[in-house]
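Record now logged for everyone:
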Amino acid sequence: MTGAKPVIVLVRPQLGENIGKAARAMLNFGLTELRLVAPRDGWPNPDAGPSAAGADAVLDQAQIYGTLAEAVADCAHVYATTVRKRGVTKPVVTPEEAVRAIHVAPGRSAVVFGPERSGLETEEVALCRTILTVPINPDFASLNLAQAVILVAYEWSKGSDAELVQPTEEELLPPAPQEELEGMIAQFEALLERAGYFFPPDRAPATRRTLRNLLTKPGWNHLEVRTLRGVLSSLADPHPRD
């Protein structure tokens, strides 16, 4: 059973573009509740919409608060995202561990992100219950705001009831019928025969088998076969078309 969706809280975000990108990251993985704490340039911000790339519903419903305490007042589980503890002793979890707990936790949960330049202040981390830290290259621990949000949102989606799809699966075409493959192979062989490729003659059968294996291995679809045959036809025609 999936628990309530976590709230995403951005504390003192500096740029409207980053708020929009965070909203886009959220909606990609089924999160919709965004809370903003004292955004630097006020709200609404005209720069947020274009960067959201269609995630306008998240921006339109965003709630504004003056302090972090107010923003998470109704949440029983509050996670502070930070790359270091900042002198505050708290349990430390990864995004995967955090969302695993959120999925089964009673009550609301919030994941809190600090401003782009400085991250959360020590007092803000202290207000939260748990520190959420992403394992990262110690020599380059630099995630932008939207990247940090998308890591959490993606982990949430893996255990949620959201109906997410893999876009590339819908775009795949079925394999081409054997008749189309045979036509493509025959066209290849005719061009290679004309160019004297099958030499010496006693090796021609083995060479043809190797060519057939090469052309049938990938599982060409109809569009790919048509495209490659068009290429072959162009190479066979010494006169370019007007």
In short: The chain has a mean pLDDT of 86.
